[in-house]
């Protein structure tokens, strides 16, 4: 019979998981902002050079 106290991946701390996901989301949004800004600057430069 299966052990009812077994947890996949060991013990987990929900607060640590939530903090890690919040940090990852903040990094993703910051990278997205930089990427969008870089594309806008690139498009403006292309327009000024070849426009």
Automatic annotation (TrEMBL):
Keywords of the record: Membrane, Transmembrane, Transmembrane helix
Gene3D superfamilies according to UniProt: Bacterial aa3 type cytochrome c oxidase subunit IV
InterPro entries tied to this protein: Cyt-C_aa3_sf
Membrane-spanning intervals of the chain: 31-50
This protein's record includes keyword Membrane: yes
Protein name: Preprotein translocase subunit SecE
Organism: Plastoroseomonas hellenica
Organism phylogeny: Bacteria, Pseudomonadati, Pseudomonadota, Alphaproteobacteria, Acetobacterales
């Amino acid at each position: 019979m299966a052990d009812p106290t077994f947890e996949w991946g060991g013990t987990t701390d929900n607060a640590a998981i939530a903090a890690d996901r919040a940090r990852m989301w903040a990094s993703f949004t910051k990278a997205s902002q930089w990427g969008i800004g870089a594309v806008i600057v690139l498009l403006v430069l292309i327009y000024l050079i070849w426009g």
